């Protein structure tokens, strides 16, 4: 297998012959033009005649002008129909020619050939053609590079890593909020690079690699840039996709070049973004071993991480949101020694992130960031940054120079549900159904214990497709969910459909998203959370990736899967019946609140609770 790789590498190192082919084509084209096309063009402009014909026309007075050259004679006639037509005849040693022309009254002249200087001859014969062909070749090379994705035949196997120093990234740990644990782990590595002696004295070795793992938008790349700003050492930044080449062996060559540069610049930090591109688990079932380009790149990365000395101060940082797909050999101690989780921020973290991004925006002094943070549970750092930006855009649109609380609250709804569809045409009957639907959610939530307070109710449609929604905001941060809380959530989701049934005696498609959410929670209660008496603490489902959609797969037999469906259906039915019971007990408030919502279209949680309490 090694022999095959060496053969492939030898083939790749040969010079690209196709460029010479293009040069030859250009040269042959110029020769053909000079040999065939240019003479034809000249022949089309000048008509050849014999010398006797020329003399006869001179004696007959038909010639008007004559130009005597070294090897030929060019003349024109007095015929008006051939005014611009020229004739040519060969120059013969005729001593009487001048007398004949003079007697015939012909205007004649003789061309005195100029002798070019040696420098001019060299310029015309060698330099200008050489410049022409070099220009043609460069044009062809540029075109080929564009078609091949910007690759250069002279840079195959060269790393495309960008090198930063402290002043170039513009980021420090002060720009990263909500990730205190991650910063603490990385700060230890940075301290090791600054003060290696105090660690070596006790016998501690520098971790070779640290893997940043977390959902998209949590700030993994931002953390890496902050490390560059804090480390004050050379910082190599490259994406995993830049190792992927169409030629076998090129990715491995780039890995070798990257680590060679890193060893020369040590102490330094190397950051590989989206390392899952090259670090996926190797497939041994195809029968081709390590001959695949991606696997060769991974094998070379593993070898290089084993080969360099940790005491030199070369640290590998990598980021991914697909840790389950990485090869186990990459994650073992001695390669990526540390796994640093970069999770979604908690309440305190969200508030800190909002304040960091708000520093670049003109804000009112009365902004309550805690309220915005409570309304954005589960939001990533990127989404929180987008909320601040949306608030600034809304302030500009409304002609204000500062962002206020209403701007941020509206931007939260824009990020969650999209922009308002003010031009949407909805009939009065459908508006009434939507109002009862949303009040049904809010009323069921308000009448249950351990349920988040209602923050806002609206029946204004949004661009995400929602015709209205009820927003609940927790008063504090919750990390655990009891069985009763999960059941109450399902009951709240079924409250909208329950209100439609009680008031209108029909079903609509407005509950489609509620059905999905209720089913998702009920299935998790049975299969993963151990909240079912029939299955106790048995794991019946696994999460494939907790960071990208949290897709699940069943780990049970078909018979058990059927029992799971029955259990999930029973939970949803019980919650639905509870919602109907709550609404029946509060039917008058349901009508009163629905009429008020129809009138206002949007009401706050305070308005809702005030009407409900009286």
TrEMBL record:
TM region positions: 20-41, 123-141
Keywords recorded for this protein, A-Z: ATP-binding, Cell membrane, Hydrolase, Membrane, Metal-binding, Metalloprotease, Nucleotide-binding, Protease, Transmembrane, Transmembrane helix, Zinc
Binding positions for Zn(2+) per the UniProt entry: 437, 441, 514
Compartment(s) where it occurs, according to its Swiss-Prot or TrEMBL record: Cell membrane; Membrane
Main subcellular localisation: membrane
Membrane topology summary: Multi-pass membrane protein
EC number: 3.4.24.-
Residues binding ATP, per UniProt: 214-221
GO MF annotations, alphabetized: ATP binding; ATP hydrolysis activity; ATP-dependent peptidase activity; metalloendopeptidase activity; zinc ion binding
Cofactor(s) required, per the database record: Zn(2+)
UniProt name for this protein: ATP-dependent zinc metalloprotease FtsH
Organism the protein comes from: Desulfitobacterium hafniense (strain Y51)
Gene of this entry: ftsH
């Amino acid at each position: 297998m090694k022999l095959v790789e060496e053969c492939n590498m030898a083939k790749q190192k040969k010079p690209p012959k196709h460029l010479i082919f293009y040069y030859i084509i250009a040269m042959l084209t110029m020769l053909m033009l000079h040999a065939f096309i240019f003479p034809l063009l000249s022949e089309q402009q000048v008509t050849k005649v014999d010398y006797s014909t020329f003399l006869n026309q001179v004696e007959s007075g038909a010639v008007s002008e004559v130009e005597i050259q070294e090897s030929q004679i060019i003349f024109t006639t007095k015929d008006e129909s051939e005014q611009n037509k020229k004739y040519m005849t060969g120059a013969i040693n005729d001593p009487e020619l001048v007398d004949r022309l003079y007697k015939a009254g012909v205007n004649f002249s003789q061309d005195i050939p100029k002798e070019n200087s040696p420098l001019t001859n060299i310029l015309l014969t060698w330099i200008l053609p050489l410049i022409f062909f070099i220009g043609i070749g460069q044009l062809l090379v540029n075109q080929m590079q564009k078609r091949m994705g910007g690759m250069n035949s002279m840079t195959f196997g060269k790393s495309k890593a960008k090198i930063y120093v402290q002043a170039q990234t513009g980021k420090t740990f002060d720009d990263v909020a909500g990730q205190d644990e991650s910063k603490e782990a990385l700060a230890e590595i940075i301290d090791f690079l600054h003060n290696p002696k105090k660690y070596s004295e006790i016998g501690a070795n520098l971790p070779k690699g640290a893997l940043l793992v977390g959902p998209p938008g949590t700030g993994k790349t931002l953390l890496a840039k902050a490390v560059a700003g804090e480390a004050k050492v050379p910082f190599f930044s490259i994406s995993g996709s830049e190792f992927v080449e169409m030629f076998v062996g090129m990715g491995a060559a780039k890995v070798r070049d990257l680590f060679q540069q890193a060893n020369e610049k040590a102490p330094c930090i190397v950051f590989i973004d989206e390392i899952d591109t090259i670090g996926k688990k190797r497939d041994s079932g195809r029968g081709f071993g390590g001959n695949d380009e991606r696997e060769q790149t991974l094998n070379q990365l593993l070898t290089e991480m084993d080969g360099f000395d940790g005491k030199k101060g070369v640290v590998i940082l990598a980021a991914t949101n697909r840790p389950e797909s990485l090869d186990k050999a990459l994650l073992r101690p001695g390669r990526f020694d540390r796994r640093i989780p970069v999770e979604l921020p908690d309440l305190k973290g969200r508030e800190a992130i909002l304040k960091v991004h708000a520093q670049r925006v003109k804000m009112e002094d009365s902004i309550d960031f805690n309220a915005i943070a409570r309304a954005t549970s589960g939001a990533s750092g990127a989404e929180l940054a987008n909320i601040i930006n949306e608030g600034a855009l809304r302030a500009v649109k409304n002609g204000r120079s500062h962002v206020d609380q209403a701007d941020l609250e509206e931007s939260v709804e824009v990020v969650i549900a999209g922009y308002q569809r003010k031009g949407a045409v909805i009939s009065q009957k459908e508006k009434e159904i939507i109002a009862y639907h949303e009040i049904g959610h809010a009323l069921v939530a308000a009448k249950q214990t351990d349920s988040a307070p209602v923050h806002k109710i609206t029946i204004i449609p949004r661009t995400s497709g929602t015709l209205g929604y009820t927003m609940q905001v927790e008063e504090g941060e919750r990390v655990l969910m009891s069985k009763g809380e999960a059941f109450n959530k399902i009951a709240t989701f079924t409250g909208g459909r329950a209100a439609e049934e009680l008031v209108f005696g029909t079903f609509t498609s407005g509950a489609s998203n509620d059905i999905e959410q209720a089913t998702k929670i009920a299935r998790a209660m049975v299969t993963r959370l151990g909240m079912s008496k029939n299955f106790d603490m048995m794991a019946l489902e696994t999460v494939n990736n907790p960071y990208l959609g949290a897709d699940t797969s069943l780990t049970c037999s078909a018979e058990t899967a059927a029992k799971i469906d029955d259990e999930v259906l029973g939970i949803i039915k019980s919650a639905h019946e509870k919602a109907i019971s709550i609404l029946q007990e509060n039917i008058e408030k349901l009508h009163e609140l629905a009429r008020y919502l129809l009138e206002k279209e949007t009401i706050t949680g305070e308005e809702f609770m005030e009407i409900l309490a009286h």
